[in-house]
Amino acid sequence: MLNKILIANRGEIALRVIYACRELGIRTVAVYSEADEHALHVRFADEEVCIGPARPAESYLNVPAIITAAQVTGAEAIHPGYGFLSESPYLAEAAGACGITFIGPPLEALRLLGDKTRARRAVERAGIAVLPGTAQPPETLSAALKASRKLGFPLIIKASAGGGGKGMRVVRDASDIEHAWAVAQREAAAAFGDGTLYLEKYIEAPRHIEFQVLADGNGRVVHLGERECSIQRRHQKLIEEAPSVVLTARQRRKLGRAVVGAARAVGYENAGTFEFLMDDRGHFYFLEANTRLQVEHPVTEMVTGVDIVKEQIRIASGEPLSFRQDDVTMTGHAIECRINAESPDTFRPSPGVIRVFSMPGGPGIRVDTAAHTDSTITPYYDSLVAKLIAHGSDRDEAIARMRRALEMTVIEGIDTTVPLHRRILEDPDFVEGRLSTAFMDRFSSA
Amino acid sequence: MSDFGEIERMVELMDAHGLEEFELEEEGRRVRLKKSSGGHAAAAESGERIPVAAATAAPVPPPGATADEGLVVVKSPIVGTFFRAPDLDAPPFVEEGSSVQMGQVLCIIEAMKLMNEIDAEVGGEIVGIFVENGQPVQYGEQLFTIKPA
Questions:
Q1: Which of A51, A71, A73 lies at the smallest CB-CB distance from B139?
Q2: CB distance A69–B78 less than 8 Å?
Q3: What is the pLDDT of residues A31-57, one digit of tens each?
Q4: Domain covering A132-201, topology
C-alpha cells in the first residue's frame, strides 16, 4: 500500500481524499494557494505546501510546483481529485517521469479518452452506440457546413478537448452554424488551448445516464451501476441520483457489460465513468468518458457500499479489486444536491464570507463539504459549497430525507442554490421521475 | 510554555524585524516579549487569557511584506529545495553581513531538476538568512532579508 499521497486539489474533494487516506493509514500532503491558507484540507493533511498565488494557473494548475511539492515531501503518489489537473496527460506524464504514481488511468487511456473524437471511435469499436456525427473533426467551417447537411438539424458543436459545457453550441438550422462555429472555436481555444470541434446529432430533452467503472491492474473490471444526472443547467449537473428510475435490471446488465468491455478495450485502470444520453425511445448513445473521480460519486457509494476513493488508492497501490461483478448490489436509492454559492434565480456566483453554516444530519444524510462558519467562498475557484446526499430504502424515502435536510440547511452570508433545490424536490415531474436535461428550463426562464 | 526554542525563535524574529515588543495569544496562553532598555528581551507569560488593547500588540509582518526599518524580504517564487551554494564544495553565494548588488545571485531553488537562481531585487546588506541549506521551501516562504544600501 502507498505510504504518502499528495492531493493536488482543494475544497471538499481534497477532504474526501484525506478521509480515505486516514482510514487506510496513509499520510497526506495538501497543496494550497495563498487564497486557501486557512482551508480545512490544509488543516487536516499531515503536511502542507503552499504552491502559488490564488490564480489557478499559478497554483492548482501548476504542474512543476505540484511535482516538486511531491518530491520535497517524499509523496509516492498524487491524487488529482476532479477538475483542475485530474484529466491532464501532462501531470500524469510528469509524475511518471519522476517515479510518482498518478492515481488515475494509464497515460495512453487518459490521452485516448480525453480526445473526444478518438474516444467515440474506440467505444464504437467496442460495440457501444454513438450519436451520428463527424468521425474526423471538420477542419474548416465549409467542411462543417457540408457535414451538417448530411447529419441534419438540430445538431451540437462540441470541443474535441472539451467538457463542462465549454465550446458547446446547439445549432437548430443551417443559418446559425457560422456564428455558433466561431463562438465555440473561440471558447474551446480559450478553455482547452485547442479549438478542434466536431459535430453530433442533437437529441432533444434526453436523459443523462452514466456508468461507474473500477478496473485494477490485473485486468479485472467491474461496474458499480448507473447514476442519472439529468437535472442540469448549462451542461452543469445540479442533482444526481442512483439508480435511475428508467433503467430495467436487464438494461443495466447489458449496458454494464458494454462499458466493462469498452474499459477493457482501451486498457483502462482505476475509476472512470462512461456517460450516455438516452432518447425518448429508450436508446442509449455514448456521450463521453471521464477518466477521474466524479463530483457525484457519493450516490454510487451510498447504494453500493463501495468506497470509490479507497478503491482508487488500492488499485494505484497495485492491489487487485477485492470483489467481483456479482458481489456488487444496489441497496435503496440515493440523491445528491450540489449546493453552489450562486443566486438561485440568476445562477450568478455569490462569493463571500459564510457567516452561519449549519448542515443537517440524521439517518441517511451525508454531507461532503469543506465549508464552515466564517469560511470564505473565494471568487477564484468553482462555486460548490457542499454536496448534500440523502439515502433511503427507496426513492420516496430519499426524497423525503432530502427535503427535510434542505429545510434544515442554514447557510448565511452568501446566496446558495438551496431554495432552488427545494423547488425542484417539490416539482411533480421530479417526484414522478420524469427527468430530462431540459427539466431546468422551467426554472431558468424565471 | 515548555518550548524554549519557540521563545528563542520569537526573540530572533524580533531582532530580525527590529521590534521592541512582541505579543502572541492563542488557546489559553499568552506570551509577551519586551526588550528592556539594554536591548535584551524580557518574557512575561500567563496561563489565562487577558484582554489586551489592540494597540499594544505589535504586528508581525507577513512573509513577503517589506519589513520595518526598510528591510526588503526576499521570498521564494516557487516550491523547491533551497541551496545556498552552486554545488556541494563551493562556498555559499552570500553570508549574513555580505553586501550584494542588485541582480546578484543569492541562492538556488531546485524544482524538477532545474536550478532556479534567485537574484537580489535591491543592492544592500544581507541581514537575515531564514532557511537551512538543502531544506524544502514553499511558495512565498521568506528566504533572506536585505538592508538596502
A1: A51
A2: no
A3: 999 999 999 999 999 999 999 999 999
A4: Dna Ligase; domain 1 (3.30.1490)
